[in-house]
Amino acid sequence: MSRRLVAVTLFAASLLSAAPQTQFPDTPAAHQFAAWLEAFNSGDRAKLLGFLQKNNPARAGQIDQEMGFRRMTGGFDFKKTEESAATRFAGVVKERDSDSFARFVLEVESAESLHISQFDLRLIPTPAEFAVPRLTEDCALAALRNELDKRAAEDKFAGAVLVVKSGKPIFTGAYGLADREKKVPNKLDTQVRIGSMNKMFTAVAVLQLAQVGKIKLSDPLGKYLSDYPNKELASKVTIHHLLTHTGGTGDFFGPEFDKHQLELRSLFTVLRTAKTGTSAVCLPESLTIRFRH
Question: pTM of the prediction?
Answer without folding.
Answer: 0.57
